[in-house]
## 1
Amino acid sequence: MRIAEISSPEIRTVHGEGDDHHILSQIESIVKQIETDSANKLPPDSAAVNLRQCLTHLSQLAPLSNSLKLQIWKLSYRLWNVCVDISNTATIRSSSSTTPSTGEKQADLRHLTADLLSIASDVTGIPSPAIKSASFYYKTGLLWHNLRKFDLASKCFERATDLISKLDVASITDSGERKLLLDLNLARSRTAWEVRDPNLAVALLNRSKSMLSGSCEDYMELAKQFMAFGKCSLSKNNEDTENRDLSEALKLMNEALENCEKGYGASRTREEKVEIRGLRWKVLRFIAAIHLQKDEFESVIKCVKVLRDSAEGGDDHPSLSVLAMKAWLGLGRHNEAEKELRGMVIDRGIPEGVWVSSVEAYFSAAGTAGAETAKGVFLGLLGRCHVSAGAAVRVASRVLGGGGEGGKVRAKVVAELVSDERVVALFAEKEAAKDRTAMHAVLWNCGADNFQSKDYLTSAELFEKSMLYIPHDTENRILRAKGYRVLCLCHLGLLQLDRAKEYIDEAEKLEPNVVCAFLKYKIYLQKKDNQGAITQIEAMTMCLDFQPDFLSLSAHEAVACSARPVAVASLSTMLNFYASGKSMPTTEVTVMRTLVTVLSQEPDNEQKVLKTLKHAHTRASELGSDCFFGKEEVGRRELNWFAVTSWNYGTKTGQDKNYELSAEFLILASNFYALVKGSDDENNVMICKSLVLSVSSMIALEFQRKAAMSETEVKQALTLLDRAGQMLKLISAGNYVTDSQLNTIAPDLFFIHTFCAYDVQGRLNDLGSQLFTVKSFASSKACKPQHLLQIGLHASQGPLSNHEVATFALNECLSSFLSSPVPDYLKVALVVRKLIAIASIHKGDKDDDLVYSMYKQAYRIMVGLKEGEYPIEEGKWLAMTAWNRAAVPVRLGQIEMGKKWMNVGFDIAKHVPGMEVYKACMEDVLSKLEKKH
């Protein structure tokens, strides 16, 4: 619109009566169009738009003449009647054709009608024009309120209030008009409440008190509105404003009660008295409920008493018993609460939900003490036709749901309740299938909770009762089997093994599976029937749903029960599944280690331990060390454990003189140590020790069984010694620069290897290798004189003697002894005697220069020694044997040869204490022999 076209006050003053009639003609035309179309359809939107424009222009023409106002009045009523016709037609039509937008169009049209009528609200000649105009706004506001367009409703109510406020309310005598005043105020109050303006809403209700005509109906209307607002406040659950809302609700309910009292006094007919009394009782019940929420239990009891002791016969509403019971519970007077609860059994008017919630409330307050009462009340209610399976579920759930202290008592009560034939009968129909499932779940869950807390007796009772709620059909066969299995577990916990066996047998009939087989296994374990348990292990593996995890569980159970043979059987069976490639619960090496540990706890299991350790080595060779034992530090520890265990068993069986097993264990130990990657000198030492001692055990076994080693055994021993020799080379090439360091790492290792090698080579009659082996040892840092002494003594005797080795070893030994700062002449004398004996045996009497040189060496050793430093007996032996060797040559006429031996014997005797008599005799014999020749 252009600025020039905007009407100004000066322009409006120019308008005359023609303009007024023109606008009215337009309005009348619109009304006629709406009247014409109203029979078939709603007026088009353009009609409302045009009408609104006309109203805008008409309002600008004020002041209007009275005749013009009368015409407006007639047009507005015609339009209102059309709106009523449209509304009636829409009501008759099907609801599907009515939409929210349709209702809004009707309300908008009525709003325009009210606005049109308000322009002529001060017309002369029509009674109470302002009230009639206000009634249009009031009715339109109700439409907007119902459409939840509260801003438009409030606008209509406020416009109606403005129209009426200009009147003298006291002068209005017509009952209908006064009723409009009250209804308008109440409607405005409801709208204010809806837009969350409770202060205005309550203020409007209080203002309505001055608009009451004194009739019972008016008091009831006001009381109902106060009560409605009180109910809204009571239903709010905002914790922050809960107490404030309760106080506000109580205040509103008291206002409602006051109006009920006034209305009862104003009632004239019996029907009015009955109606207002019913409303009063309802308000009182709400007041009691508010006091209950505020924990004002005494006030609740007073309200209930007033209601019951009313002169008109008293209120028998079902909620009174609930209110009274909860109030008595709040006061801690359980006997009175129980009376109220039991009274509900008689009252058939109490709905199921009410008494079930009452039972729940009673039990919540009374706790364990209320369990028996709850059961008794429920069983008493079974005679009432409306008791349902769902109610039984709720009661059972509530009684069991307490937990904590007194749980056994509650569980016992529920067990008795749910096993009652009448209760079970409630769930017999197909319609109760969901409730039956719910009851089973309640009992099952409570049984599971008690099982977890190890109260097996209570859990068994609850599980048994839950079986009552599983139908005996094919569909529920698996569920029944599950129930039997858990009952088996309960009786296992109670050590009632025969009962447990009965239940698991029933479960197996319904659903044979590995769980049943495992539970049977547990029963055999508890009965100490090891053979039965072992048989059951095999039965588990035959189940279709078998998983190796059950063997792991079986082993743990057996170990816990100290049933070692059963544990061994479980672990051994478990090992059979690793080669198949199945997914296993633990590593193969762990199972083998555990098996060896269990076997080690029983005596005389060395053969089984050896078999397991050999199997472990075989699997490690097949899979690879890292794959079998593990990688890095974990694998190293595992491998070391097997190696050390083999070594320990090898040494233990050796000490027990079980040389055959000792050899096998030690060979196995060397194999385990050899698997260590990047073996250091310490591992090489252990490998060498294991190999050498294994051959030593084989040699000892030969003496033990008094039968020579077979050719195969000799070859095996030789192979083992060759491996040990290679290790010795590695050890010798290590960072051991001194003899003491070498002996710290491998004491006597080189000597035992040499000794065993000499022994084995002798069995092959390889004399040259024997001498080479001993010479190699003699040149090593590990060689000690005592080692050579032992070798020499061993080589000088027995069926496998080797005089060359003996002579070499004893000569080397003698040199070492004599080079010592403090020689041990006892050992020197022993070596000298042994060398003389060897030389005498293997050289003969004809070629005795070697023997003679030994005597001369002995003489030179004795020269310069203190008296007795050289063993006297050995000295006497040397002197006497040398002297005696002259006898044969003298007899044969070899005087010079005889004198040579006599002189040696005499010279030695000079250095031996205690031979003075012999020396004199020797000297005489030599003198006589010299004289003759």
## 2
Amino acid sequence: MTPASLRSWALFWAFCSTFSHSSLAQNGGASFPFVLPSQCGPNRFYNTASLQCSTCGSNQSRSLSGLQCVCHSGFTVIDLGSPRVQCSVCNGTTSLDQRRCLQCLHGRGNCVCGPDQTLAENLNDLTASCVTCPSTLVGKPGTASCVLCQETFYAVSGTCTCPDELLLGGLCFNDTRTAAVQGSVPPASIWFRLYLDSSFLACSIYNNATACQLLTNMVLLDPAGENSKAFNLYNRASSQSPPLQFLPQLFYSESLSLEQTAPTGLTFLSNSQINLKVVKFDARGSFLGWEDVLGGTLQLCPDTQQRLDAAYLFGTTYLQSCSIAVMELLSRYPEPVFYQLFLKYRDRQGVDMVWPIPVQHLNQVSSPDGSMAVRRFFLVDGLTGRDRSVTQQPLSVRYLSRLLLRVNVPTSSPAATPPFQLLVEYNTVNDPANAVAQVSFAVTYSMSEEDMRRGTAISLGVLGVLSLLLAMLETSSWSQRAGQQYISLTVIVKFLAFLIGNLASAFFLVSFGTGVYWLIAFKGQRSTVNMVLPSSGGTALQVIHMLIVQVSISIFLIDWEKPRNAANASAGLGVSAWRIFFVANEWNEIQTARKLNPLLQLLTVLLILQVIGVENIASRDLNLVLQPEGARYSAPTSPILRFGLNASVWLAVGLAQVLLYLVIYERFVEDKFRQFVDLCSLSNVSVFILAHRCYGYYIHGRSVHGHADVSIEAVRANLRREEANLCALRGLEPNSDIQTFEIALTDRVRQQLDRIMLSLAEASGARGRSTGAEGPQEPQEQTTKAYHAMKYFLSSFLEHAHKDMDYIVKDKLLLERIMKYEFQRPVERTIFYRDPDGVSFTNVLYFSNELTLLLFDTLLFCIIDLGSQNLVLAAVLTYAVQQVLDCLRYYISRRNVSEKTLVDQRFLI
């Protein structure tokens, strides 16, 4: 080839490259129509760089492969590896290599040779004649054609030989010095030594499409990334002017915004298949075609077709990992195959489009502008690690240890991140014969959490302020009930306890609401999918605070029974003590009674979640299958869905039990607490309870019949009289049947109680210090005197015997009942607030604190399950904690009742 022809050839390619680059720049990373090589017309070839059809030049047509153009018959061709060739008309006979036009010596026009002949060419005078093909030529003797030498040899030297200093990778170049750039090369890789420089030179000088693909692949194969020579050569090639037409865009350009190029209006139905396609290239840069991404295309771990395909069901979070021998990977991929991943969809005009999914190489190359988005990746590389021959066993193997397809929702309106992203991470082993690879494949879904975080922050802010105000109100109420006049350390501790408990309830409400919201919003998507899942010790403290208050109450039993005659009284024969023992035992029994059965609660929750299979709804997919098939892929569980589901089921079962107790069991089976009030009336014993220093509860148990220590016949007769309204009502007030009250004591009454209780404490201390056989007698007498003093004072106080320590009975205002706060302070007289429901005293028992206990059980069960992922273990541990708390509550309260009521623990059974 003459220098003049080379100059004209360069000008031609400059024009073509400029035109092609402008079209690529317009397309960039945006969607483009999906076209296969077979769909290109007869005068168009398939451009493997742009993946679109391009027009052949004049006098050219598509080759059989469809990947390049060929000259028509009668035209000479200049083919340096570019899909577009240069054709010139020939009025005579074209040479065997179609590089020259020759005149036939046997006549004018073309030489038509026989089947065993070939053209004998005289390139000096450009003539040709038909002769028998010599057997010494390279090729098969006796055929009608002879094997030609490499095209670049003719382009450089005009012969079939190339000087050694100009020969690289089997190609001949005018100058090889342009391949000298800074950067590292894998030292033990014959592949890089043979083809790195030649691929750059062939791509940049000859516009060889295969060489451009090969150069692009080498950038990915070199683990040095941006410090490698391949990276620098690619940058030099991509910065040439005019731009190279057939050099693929490996990196997203600095001005290319991924979200701007992503398709808008892209929607998916529930459990619809994501239509993904890959275009493949071999290690040498040859185009291998398009392929659907289905089971096993990108997954290195073996599995069934159904489970592999489940990865591409939209909305299904997928996770697969396994250990696989490196030699098995090499048998499947003896040479690396390079992939470009695309999303195929149909636009509004009904045209099939593909959108390139950006790839982030987490530990390999980075683009010139520092970003990590590229367009190509591979699965296994056993080629780079070969030192002496490309056919030997590799010394090292690189494999894709982690592949993550990340989907950002909603896909219809891309934001700062594109709707689809592929993250890949590689690992290298140096002993492939004995190495085992750990690989994983995952598909995750995410969405912008700004709105959710803003809503959560607002909710927590509002509930936090309300918790603070409620804690201040509760502290003020407690201070008033406890008779606290000033802010002390005890008041501060109480405030913190109330505040932490309220904040714990607020946090639970927000967490539970978030879990239920995502459970309904995510699992309820049956048409277009627009959302996916986002990526408490306070309640325990609240329960502990409640227990401390309940086990430290002051309780007194007032026996109204009088001796039947003066003789018994003077003889020291008092009334029977068994009624007091019986009431104390019954009080001890009802302290831990609840509206729900904990064992039934656990068994029902396990039945719903595990036996029925409701727990499977918490999977990270859009399925609502309770019992999935064994061969079907099971998506991993979402913690937020699992929490929302478990908490919902636990609370639903608990609230259902409470409702059944209040509506059915309490009315038609047994009402333990109102029965306790009736027992007090039958026993002629009142119960005086102080939960705080100046606040408590009173159960009026004074018998309307005068005596309770009577025969069974007399008891029955008394009950019949009550049924027939032949006696007074049981209430504290005349003509009233209200027996339970909330009481707010004055300081004067409380001081009197403290003086009596002080003597009781001194007697108890003296009794504890006594060791002799005769020692306990005097403290015991002192205790008995203190007991009678307390009994006398309380009974006389209730009978209005103390004018300076009197009381009034009134109803609580509606707002006082709601806020649990008394607006009127008892200054001159103690206030008894009527309790029409008859169960206000259960505030110092488990019964009226069911909500706090239910929330504690719910959080305990959910936290253990989230940590262990085992429902049975969570249920067993939750039940164990419940039983431990019940036992502590029972035995500590039993001791407290014994000390306060002076009933020996031996009689509390």
## 3
Amino acid sequence: MQEKIRVALYVQKAALQFIDAAKKVDYKLSDEAKKAGFGIDPGELASIVRGHDSKGFKLHGGIEGIASKVRVPLHNGISETEVPLRQNIYGSNQFTEKPPRSFLSFVWDALQDLTLIILIVCAVVSVGVGLATEGWPKGIYDGLGIILSIILVVMVTAVSDYKQSLQFKDLDKEKKKIIVQVTRDGTRQKVSIYDLVVGDIVHLSIGDQVPADGFFISGYSLLIDESGLSGESEPVNISEAKPFLLSGTKVQDGSGKMMITSVGMRTEWGRLMETLNEGGEDETPLQVKLNGVATIIGKIGLAFAILTFMVLTGRLLVTKVMHNELSKWTSDDALTLLNYFATAVTIVVVAVPEGLPLAVTLSLAFAMKKLMNDRALVRHLSACETMGSSTCICTDKTGTLTTNHMVVDKIWVSNKTEAIKGNKGVENLKSMLNQKTMDTLLQSIFQNTGSEVVKGKDGKNTVIGSPTESALLEFGLVMGGDFDSQRQEFKIVKVEPFNSVRKRMSVLVSLPNGGSRAFCKGASEIILKMCSKIIDDKGEIVALSETQSRKVIEIIDGFANEALRTLCLAYKDMEETSKKVNIPEEGYTLIAVVGIKDPLRPGVKEAVQTCLAAGITVRMVTGDNINTAKAIARECGIFTDGGIAIEGADFRSKSPEETRELIPKIQVMARSLPLDKHTFVTQLRKMFDEVVAVTGDGTNDAPALHEADIGLAMGIAGTEVAKENADVIILDDNFQTIVKVAKWGRSVYINIQKFVQFQLTVNVVALMINFVSACLSGSAPLTAVQLLWVNMIMDTLGALALATEPPNNGLMQRPPVGRGVNFITKTMWRNIIGQSIYQLIVLGILEFDGKRLLKLGDNSHDTMVLNTFIFNTFVFCQVFNEINSREMEKINIFRGMFDSWVFVSVMTSTVAFQILIIEFLGTFASTVPLSWHLWLLSILIGSVSLVVAVILKCIPVEQVRKDSTDTHHDGYSALPSGDENV
């Protein structure tokens, strides 16, 4: 998809250059826009950004000139009341999507099946021959019965596919919901990307996606990744000299503000979308695997169908030879041959298990919908089945295990520690600090931040920004600081935003009385190494001695051992004020050590225990201090006796041999860089063959999210880059939700195994009974229409019943199985073979000795009664076998059956329709009404399969699993890697 976008971009740019060279477009402002007070045409605005037209930009007076022409004050932003007007004149930020496929197109697709086409031809010919030989209306019954069955199959398939497409469309809309921060009516607020209009002032930070085309207003070190559009790997430095920002690109570093100039289909991304249609979901690994199974079984079915046709035709020829009628062929003979061919075709229809991929799709779609209710948005279908096989979760700490609402809990300043709990702690801190130290502390908080304090419509202050910075700003406000006055008093000259490599944020400000001051905050150990001075208990600046440095380290460790996240605040005064001056990296004065608390989320301990019981190892990978990380990990049950906590730097320094020995024991990795996380995940997957899930929220997590078997991005704290590289978005940032995803993933996989067991049993029985009967008696007991109904039970209804079973708690009490295990387990083969043998014996006895056992005569009506009874018994065997398939190992197959309304509905409708076919639709289905005792006998024979299932489950089979001590495994296996045999 990305390559198609790049090609389209190059073609489009070449075309635009050609057009511009030939003719300059003359844009005229509409009367409506003039009347509203706007001074520039939407098309002209769009062309300036799209063409990076610096001349046009300057011609209109730069950013200030264009802002005045679109009636927006750059400081306050647009007014909320102007949004409808701007949408009317400049358009809304919506992309024109390709029209949804109609229901009739799905009907047409369903009719393209080759076997159905052959059956339609057979039905038409059957009607023609029947009318010629038997007349109206009797002659059309056989053909019409096949046509009605085909219509039913096609309609059910089309309805299923159509509903699924609508569901995926809704999910697609959900995953495209992006919230951005804008300034409107003088306040900073959050709005949906779809509500943006021309003139909106948008705030950008690391990891954000540029939501529309526009111009750079102001910012610091703003680097934009345009590789998704241009294919160029080098990021573009955006500044006042190069102010053009394109929608769909991503902020790689820095921060800034932009003014929206083009939205929706007028943006660069929108114009490209006109020339491209995004493809649908790729097939999941399991679908690919099951398609292979279906192909093999289909070939076997085709061979049996050809053999059946040849045997039936051969018997007809032998009969004609014996009666010396080989040269005499009548229309009845033609109709007989046509019926033989129709039977052969329907054997292929029954044999080809097209329900396998359908079952996967239904199960995944059902799981996706349920997970949406559980606050997890599945972006890729394969994520469900993969998460069910995960053996390891590498989780972030902040926001995932913790609440992500941070507050300053303790502070060490002027050689004193104070707990900030309520007004008493704040008053104590104020009383012990002199005014100079207090001013410096508040300056370091309010000047060196990427967050903002904004006044809402209710007049209350609200902090918008990252949780850590918000905690500091809230603390500064509680201490009596004024954010706005601080920002007006000092002018910011240069900013180095926080990133995962530097692990600090620095800012250079010019002082009112001349000179400049650099503020720095970040990871405690890193900032402490940059300091050579410290503010003492009298507020004086003194040299930072080794003794004092060790004391600060003890304070940091003490805070960390209390599960507090520690930050150091520092500053340095300088004489130079030029923008060319680099922010210093040494010689700072330490102001304070701040301990920020982020309490554990409710239920995290239980969720971690559930994972451990399910054989899923949970590892914490965080950029935080190792002591803080260990304290939190121990509190939630991740860090246990025998486990190892390691820092990223130590991990990087290990040799390959040491790494191999170390990795299985690592439970906590602290102070990790993005490369450490990526390496850790890669080695877990490749060296230890683990199925790894990774959680992350930052741009720095994107490589690990992409490398993992399944990436889980945080929906609240997560950046757009993290979400784009993830398979699942956790909408509530809660670790408990991750456990639900794993539970549903296991449910998907085992449900599909249940369906495969059920379908293969029906396949074997239907093939063998028709083939053997055709060879020995010269006729097939199951007609084309009957086989089509069985196919409906087996494929669509069977998939609906078994593939949508909700998960039970037992799923999280068994260990995951390794990648290399066959999808069809020995347990499944045992059940398939056992049930098939029982059904073949019963149906074989009925076929060859049924008239004697049921005390029927030799007339044609009694033959129809026997064939109807065999068909009815066969169907009830499948109904009870479907109940058996709910549990592949446990004896109590009824447990939880009535919890699934889908399963109960399918069973009820199957039985109801079977009654309808036999009692009222016999003309089309070649059946006759049965007496009540024959109905009971059919049900009784079918129900005996329940007893057979219990007997089979008493036969032990060898299990393939990691933990051989597990005694209640019922055939669940992990996601295959694709290179093993079924």
